[in-house]
Amino acid sequence: MKVANLAFGASSLGGVFHDIKEKEAIEAVFTAVDGGLNFIDVSPYYGHYKAETVLGKALKDIDRSRYYLSTKVGRYGENGVNTWDYSAKRAKESVYESMERLNIDYIDLINVHDVEFCSDLSIIANETLPALHELKAEGVVKHVGITDLQPENLKWVIEHTPKGTVESVLCFCHYCLNDDMLLDYLDFFEKNEIGVINASPLSMGLLSQRGAPSWHPAPEALKQRCSEAAKLCAERGTEIEKLAMQYSVSNPRIATTLFSSANPKNVLKNIDFVNSEYDEELAKEVQAFIGDQMRVRWANS
Question: Known catalytic residue: 45?
């Protein structure tokens, strides 16, 4: 898959962060694709099936050749209750359910979602991934990948499966202005011919003028340093969100970076951000300012 360096994450379409207006959310998808974002990522977990349902309403009006579609198996939910099931049977069922919600007849990339939530990673290696490769052999899915917040888990699964089993990885919050840990794993991924997807360029809201949301698991010292970094950017005449987006898409070794919004104006704003001139020196200054809080991890990260 030849993907643009910026990609559309559809988690917001599930009302994950706040209530959405469905018509506006569908327009956000159109805006993303029209803006050259040819990779769309979603999951049945986002909004407990709502994100896939809303996205499917948009996709039925977009030519299938204009985008690659990624969704996931393993994490689900009903009536506000999260559930996990990484069994082969449920994985296969989930793929067909997703295709129905999404109004498509094949999936470009199917991911095992957040493998850290599986009680035993060997289940991912020996059961979930082989089941998805059976669907690949049937042409139902084109590629198979895994996702996780913790890059160590991604590496473990790759090391415990035959080469080619994992074709891509999606890792979030570890290639952004305050955390570049993903750099430590790029040689390993490239050696194994694995494509890399980055997500959460704003580190789940840490790198924003508004500041981290109340539920954010980062320690207070890191939140404070990022808040001060936002003020530093403002003093330099720019928004930290703009610099953070530009930083996250600047590494050619990372195939694409996902951001999510159900607002078409925000989609356009982010496209403008990454198409604007990147102030690499300011990025270095911000990282130096974050200093000893760089790569500081939080619970389950």
Answer: no
* Predicted local distance difference test score (pLDDT) of residue 78: 84
Rounded to whole angstroms, how far apart are CA atoms 243 and 95? 37
| Choice among 46, 67, 76, 175 that is catalytic | 46
User: What DSSP state is assigned to residue 211?
Assistant: -
Neighbours of 51 (CB within 10 A): 30
128, 88 in Cβ contact below 8 A? yes
Q: Which of 17, 22, 59 is nearest to 38 (CA)?
A: 59
Please tell me the distance from the alpha carbon of residue 104 to that of residue 85, in angstroms, as a whole number. 23
**CA distance linking residue 124 with residue 101, whole number of Å:** 25
Supply 106's token pair.
């094949």
Return the ∠ at Cα 162 (arms to 158 and 167), rounded to 5°. Answer: 55
Confidence of residue 278 (pLDDT cuts 50, 70, 90): very high
Give pLDDT, residue 300.
67
